[in-house]
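In response to reviewer comment 3 from the previous cycle, which asked for concrete evidence that the modeling workflow produces usable outputs, we include below a single protein chain processed end to end. The sequence was submitted unchanged, and the resulting structure tokens are shown without manual editing.
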Amino acid sequence: PMMITNLCTRPTSTITLRANNWVHLTTVPSVRGMTYWVSFDVNVTGGTVSFIGTQGEFSARQRVSYMTYVDNSSPLSVNYSVKSGSPTVTVTNILICTWAEYQSNKTLLDSIGYFDGDTMPLA
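The workflow returned the following structure tokens.
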């Protein structure tokens, strides 16, 4: 397997999201025209939400993963829309890598979820 770089600079930090408001998951600029794999643990309390790029609705603690194509050079961000209630949404254990890196290492990455720089580098 090739070396994978987690483009999230602080993967174990906890980030509180805001409804309909893009919040950076990393400080590293995106590469325009690149496709990325984004995966994180989400904790949703007090309601139900949906995320752009994903299927279904989320109302508990679970892993969320999706592929995203980036057409700008801003750091990767995520937001949610409220489906019910007045939810609080936090993410942690973040993995952001290129789609090519994910495809080449899918079994490994699906099993470990994320890494914090101990065996593979952070951006």
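The chain has a mean pLDDT of 91. We consider this sufficient to address the reviewer's concern, and the full set will be provided in the supplementary archive.
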